[in-house]
Every structure is written in C-alpha cells, then in structure tokens.
Amino acid sequence: MPSIPPVTVALAEIARLAGVGRAAVSNWRRRYSTFPAPVGGTDTTPQFDLAEVESWLRDNGKLRREEDLLRWLWPQFDALPGRAAAGEAIAAVAEATGATEASGKLGNAQLAAVEEALKVARSRGVGATYDFLLERWSRTHVRQISTTPSPLAELMVTLAAVLGDRPRAVLDPACGTGGLLLAAGHRWSSERALELMGSDVSPVLARLARGRIGTSGLPRNVRTRIATTDTLRDDTWAAERADVVLCNPPYNARDWGHEELATDTRWTFGLPPRTESELAWVQHALAGLADGGTAVLLLPPGVAKRRAGRRIRAGLLRTGALRAVIALPAGSAPPHAVGLHLWLLRKPAADAHPLKTLLLVDAAETEEGTGTKDGRDPVDWDALTHSLPAVVRAHEAGESRDVSPVRSAAVPVVGLLDEQVDLTPARHVPAVRGSAARRARRSWEEFSSALSRLAEVSSALAALRELEEAGVQPPTTSIDELLRAGALELHGGQTLPRDAVHQGPRPRGAVPVLTVNDLIRRTEPTGWLGPHQVTAFEEHITLTAPLDVVVVGASQVFDAWVEQTAPTALVPQILALRPDPGLLDPWFLAGCLRSPGNARQAGSHSTHASRVDVRRLRVPRLSLAEQRRYGEAFRRIVELERMLQQANGLGRELTGALSDALAEGRLR
C-alpha cells in the first residue's frame, strides 16, 4: 500500500489550533529551540509537520486538541491534493454514515481523513462535523466556489413564501453546495411532504449538496434528488414542475449554449443574447414552474439595465412575470464588491391579469440593512429579513402606504417600457424627503462636538514647556537592533491576488487594503477585502493588529503612525512594527520614527529614491516610563492633526447639507 504523505500546516493554522494569535506562534519559533523545523513551503510561508506540531504543543503545555476536535480535523482534509479531492472526502463522510448513497472511490489519504472525521463525528455529531468541514472547504476555495450565504438563502426563501407559500416541490437548477435547498427544507418541511430537486454541473458540488442536506436533520417527509448535469443544455428536471424555484446562477457566462439552444421552447420572451446568460437562467426558471409558481433569483445589477436584454425585460413586464427587483447592499454575496439584485418572478396563470406596477426596492444605500451595529457583518440581515418581505407583501396586496424604512416604489409598467427598459431600483426610487434636513442637523452636532474636542487637545499641548537647556542627547538605537533584541516584530506587506481586492464603497465588516497610491492621493483606502477573502488568503495577507506601528517605506510618502483601526491589510512598501509593550511604547516609537531627523534618514537611505531602509531608522534609548511620557505628547499631536482634518471635512459636509436642506424648503 502506498505511504500517506505527512499532513503539513502553516503558521496561521498552528495559531488556530493552539487558540492563539500568529504573533504568539512567531514568538515560540524565536524563543524555543525545540520548536519544529519547517518541512516545506518558503521562507515567508513555511509548512510544518502536523504530528510534530501536536507533539511540541503537548510537551510545552499548549495543546488544545481535547477542547476542539473539529479544529484539529481540518488539516487532514486541507492536506489532500487539490480542491476536488478534499471535496470528495468531505462528501464521503456523509456517505459513510448512510446519510446519502455512496458514489466514487477514494484514495488512501482520503480514506484516512474520512476515518478521522468519523471518529470526531461520534462525539460531535455527523451534522456538526460535516457542516464544519464544508464551511472550511468553501472558505479555503472561495475564489473558485461561489456559495449563497445562509442569511441570504433564508431571505430568498422568505420572499418566495410571500408570493406563494406551502410548496410541494422546490427546484434549484444551479444548486452548488445546496444552501438554498436546505433553507427551503427548513422552512417548508413541517407543513407537508416536500420534494427538493437540484442540479449542478460539478460532480463534487452535487455530492456535497447531497451530503449537506442528508446530514441536516430534515424530517423523513423531505425527498431530495440532486443531479449532475449542465442544466441549460441538458435539463434533468425538464418533465418536472416546481412550485418554487430558487437560484443563484453563474454570472457572465459566454459558453452557455447560445447556438445549440437557439430554438429551445424555454425562450418564451425571446432567445437570450450570448452576453445575457443570466436572462437564460431567468427564462429557464419560469419554464420549470407550475402555473402560479414563484421564482427568486440572485443576479448581478447589469441584468436590469444592459441594452442587449431590454426586449426580454419588456416581455417579463408585459406579462406580469416579473413582480419585483430588489437592490441589496454590497457584501451580501460574492462578488462582495457589487450590490446584487433579487428578482422576484411568478409564472402567470392562463387567466392572470398583467400587473400595472413593478415593485422596485433600493436597499443598497439605505441605513436599513447596511451593516450590523457591531460591524461584524457588512449586511444587517435581521433588518432586511424584517423589512423586505413587508414591502413585498404590501405591494402584492395593492397597498400604497409606506410599510418599510427601505426605499421602494411601485412604478407603472407603462413608464418602464421605453427604449432602455432600465429596471435598476436606484434610478426610479425617489430619495427620502427631508433627509437633507436630518443630515444638516446631524452635521451640526458632529461639527460642534469636534470643535469641543479640538479645544481640549489644544489646551493640553499648549501646556507643554520649553526646556531652558537642551542638555545631553540620549543614546539611540536602530530598528534593526530592536528586532534582534526581541523588542519588536516586523511584518512586511504582501502582494495580494489582483482579483481578491474589491474597489468602491467599503461595507461594514470588510478589511481595508492600504496602498502607497492611497497615501500619495491622501485618501482613505479604496480597496477592501471581504471576510471570506481574508480567511481564504490568510497565509498571503499582512494584517495589522491594534497598537502596531505602521511604517511607510516609500520615501515619497514616508510616515509612521500607531494603528487604531485594525485590521488593515498592508501591501509591499508598507510594514507593521509590533512592539513588545513591556519594552517599547508604540506612541513613542511612532512619534520618533516620523520625526524630521528620520525623514532625512529616509531620503539618504532610499534605493533609487523610492524605498526606505526601515531597519536603519533610529529612536532614543529611554526608560519605559520616559517613553510613555513622550508617547502621550506624540499621541496628542496626532490627535490634533486628525481633529483638524476632521473639522475641515465636517465643515464641508455641513455646508453641503445646509444648502440641500434649504433647496428642499426644509429650513428657513
């Protein structure tokens, strides 16, 4: 039997297994000569033998395996060769328990991982074990696998229930790992026998979906059938009719079957152009519905306005098939930089009367739904799940009263049937009247508060006294010497995958990406990473921690400051110094590094007038008590600088808000 290669883990995974931060693991490597040596990887991303790591943690009293068996299980699957191999092994965990039928053979390494998972499942439960492995697998391969977040899946099911509840059959023709079908099963399985039908072109995803639903604990009255097929070209469920279709289809596909499907009977509203694959999925969903059935699809915003799709959109409006378009906040689902749309559709019955209005809801820019109060999620799903069904229910009932804090409008269909047929909610939903007056009142309060804080800091700095004699200059030390003494850690910025960094407005919970160009333009970071990207690229991201000293190594914009908004992702030429708080005060360190003397050093030690040798910068050698005294003064200087900038910005906002409120006639 071929030998199974050893399982390896990176520093971030060791930190996760031990329940500590990466900095602690770096300290262990530096301070303990017995720490395991790397067995692979590179200097910046070393790999370690998992068995050696486990032994070292146990011998040094740092082992937490007994506390979290699931956490220790994942490296067994992550070490398998490739995304598909790990996915097959995870699916086999469900198959081995009898939750779904077995399919496919596994290699020795896969079988070993499955055996470990079954051991854990005996104590933690099959469902919890399977969900953990699937979640980690999805996060690890977030660039290749697009999933529907559970809160969004639940919202889509809730909206479908508003248009038509108590279904007998639910279909997802592009089911992925089965999130939408699972949400449907949880909502409707208690009411009657329920059929869940799904398809996916990927055999691995189809197996994972079967396992996910099979281990979820749904009652026996739920029958699940998942097919592996290219749905648009070869529809397994062509002879079936569903009461509800839920779908998050692939976006921007070109090879979806445009030519060979030119005469397909599903194109009731016209053959979708080659560039409009999403409208092919819309018509496919309607074709799979029983009369009066409901479909909810998650689509990119371009589908609502691209000129190539205007005839199909017009047909959907004229027949009343399209009931509502809802714009969601950015960050609701991948791609996180884009505010996606939900399309709510109903297959018209033979005797149905066309709708006179289309409901358009703009939840993308309103306060309702754009982030939880604690900032952990860029979308406030509780708010959206409460408000969006209410506004849809009111529209279906023919009520015109304002039932929701989100912006919405029932727009006459005849007014939408122009040359563009643009169904983008933001274009048709009016702004909330009186918002400028509220903004002006809020701006006054913020401006007054900023002036009060500015006066306090100014008074404190004005009390600083000039020394009558300069005295003897204290000795200095270099950053390099501090690093070698263990008083500092240096974490250099890393190049991020180009397609991982999003641009545009940053939703709550996202991690900003600071670049040299941002500093040159004197702007806030324009790029950001969603929570899933941060996890997926953890080994290739340098994230700041609170009280790190961030140093810009580009001489053109050389600077240093104490990090107060962590985490921030850093790129090359920007680095983080992490001082030992028992040896160095971060405010003292940052204040000394950004002094004029070091600025001159930055210019003289730069390479090609562009880079700074940060290791050669110097700071005075003072006691910790003296450092803190100077550090407090440096902190107040930084605070004064920030407040002056803030007051300037608030002043501009205030004048703009006042002008808008006067123009609205809300002030006099």
From TrEMBL:
Q: Which UniProt keywords are given for this protein, alphabetically ordered?
A: DNA-binding, Endonuclease, Hydrolase, Nuclease, Restriction system
| Record Pfam families | N6_Mtase (PF02384)
Write down the InterPro entries for this protein, in alphabetical order: DNA_methylase_A-5, DNA_methylase_N6_adenine_CS, Restrct_endonuc_typeI_TRD_sf, SAM-dependent_MTases_sf, Type-I_RE_MTase_Subunit, WH-like_DNA-bd_sf
Span-the-membrane segments of this chain are none
Which PANTHER family does this one have? TYPE I RESTRICTION ENZYME HINDI METHYLASE SUBUNIT, TYPE I RESTRICTION ENZYME HINDVIIP M PROTEIN-RELATED
Q: What is this protein called?
A: Restriction endonuclease subunit M
Q: Which residues form a coiled coil?
A: none
State the superkingdom. Bacteria
Q: Does the keyword Mitochondrion apply?
A: no
GO MF entries: DNA binding; endonuclease activity; N-methyltransferase activity
Task: Tell me the GO BP annotations in alphabetical order.
Answer: DNA restriction-modification system; methylation
| Domain DNA methylase adenine-specific positions | 126-369
